[in-house]
Design a protein that fits this description.
The chain is of the alpha/beta class. The protein has a single domain (about 1-250), classed as Metallo-dependent phosphatases (Purple Acid Phosphatase, chain A, domain 2, 4-Layer Sandwich), CATH 3.60.21. The protein has helices at about 15-25, 45-55, 65, 75-95, 130, 225-235, 240-250; strands spanning about 1-5, 30-35, 60, 100-105, 105-110, 155-160, 165-170, 180, 195-205, 215-220. Strands 3-2-1-9-10 form a 5-stranded mixed β-sheet.
Length: about 250
């Protein structure tokens, strides 16, 4: 069976990223997809972008990837732009919005935040209406040449953005069971667990019909003190906020 690791929200935390890559390699998973927010918040945005480009087969754009290309008037944003440099900024600015793939007969759509935009946030406690909207087609989402794709909606939606991993089955009029799946954050988890988070999709690629499949959430301990030390060494703006978030696993 095919296995695909899905990572998201690295946020310049190269220490956490390396721990996750090591875990993925230990599981002998060869395919990695990234759901955006490579930079911002953390002390090593350039290193994170370069490593993602090296190991990931596909990368979609996050709100930070888009926003860091806008004019910055705050110290932290200016610092991130300087660390990234022009070529990496251009790379982040041109990332695709979404990815669609077929696994075990399931249509899976992956994006950063929502099908509306990279800035439209759908939290774990969002309403059923908001969550059902995650499966709808918009001008931003890709329309692959799957059989019946004009009438169908995705079976599974995978996203990042909120830094809180979860899985939820949702009933709709079109389908009895839709699966909404958030893989959490590699570099800045906000669920109270200060460990990197990522997901694994397992199934048969491009199966003609329904086949067995599985979805996992994985937590990876990493050296939080090392990540904070990197920020201290760089004299990164927002150091105390970063220290709080990495040590507690909570957003300040």
């Amino acid at each position: 069976m095919e296995r695909i690791a899905v990572i998201s929200d690295i946020h310049g935390n190269a220490t956490a990223l390396e721990a996750v890559i090591k875990d993925i390699r230990r599981r002998r998973i060869k395919r990695i997809i990234c759901l955006g927010d490579l930079a911002g918040k953390g002390p090593q945005p350039a290193e994170a972008v370069d490593r993602i480009r090296e190991v990931c087969e596909s990368v979609v754009q996050g709100n930070w990837d888009l926003g860091i290309n806008l004019p910055q008037d705050k110290e932290g944003g200016i610092w991130q732009q300087e660390k990234l440099g022009a070529e990496r900024l251009e790379y982040l600015n041109t990332l695709p919005f979404s990815i669609d793939l077929s696994l075990s007969g399931k249509w899976i759509r992956l994006f950063h935040a929502s099908p509306q935009s990279v800035n439209t946030r759908v939290n774990r406690k969002a309403s059923k209406k908001e969550k059902l909207a995650m499966f709808q087609h918009t001008e931003m989402t890709a329309r692959p040449d799957f059989a019946g794709s004009d009438e169908r909606i995705p079976d599974i939606v995978v996203y990042g953005d909120i830094h809180v991993p979860y899985m939820q089955m949702i009933k709709s009029k079109e389908k009895k069971g839709l699966l909404l799946y958030n893989v959490g954050s590699v570099g800045a988890p906000y669920d109270g667990i200060p460990q990197a988070s990522y997901g694994i999709l397992e199934g048969t690629s491009d199966a003609a019909g329904d086949e067995p499949y599985s979805i996992q959430l994985v937590r990876v301990p990493y050296d939080v003190d090392k990540a904070i030390a990197a920020a201290e060494q760089e004299n990164m703006p927002g150091l105390e906020r970063l220290r709080y978030e990495l040590t507690t696993g909570l957003e300040q």
